[in-house]
Amino acid sequence: MILDTLGRLRQLLDERNWTEYRLAKASGLSDSTIKNIFKRNTHPTIETLEAVCRGFGIICSARGSPRRTPPFPPSRSQA
């Protein structure tokens, strides 16, 4: 599972032409946290994965098929 997760994260980085540093900034995580995921093959926590998904603008899915988040949340009048 960790290789699938790391592979998918790497794929998302490549698709966006992002660096690990860019992902760290977008997700609100430290650069060292992101580097540890890739360089040390550490298994990220659920909280870390959720932050990474938010950084990528996708929703974490237990089924492995992340969906894109809408660009803007609905206004209160639309909710």
What is the element string, with H for helices and E for strands?
A: HHHHEE
What's the gyration radius in Å? 13 Å
Tally the helices: 4
Classification by helices and strands: mainly alpha
Question: How would you describe this protein?
Answer:
The protein is mostly helical and 79 residues long. It is 54% helix and 5% strand. It has helices spanning 2-16, 20-27, 31-39, 46-56, and strands at residues 58-59, 67-68. A two-stranded antiparallel sheet has the order 1-2. It starts with a helix and ends in an 11-residue tail after the last strand. 10% of the residues are buried.
Task: Put the structure in a nutshell.
The chain has 79 residues and is mainly alpha-helical. The chain is built from 4 helices and 2 strands. Strand 1 (58-59) and strand 2 (67-68) form a beta hairpin.
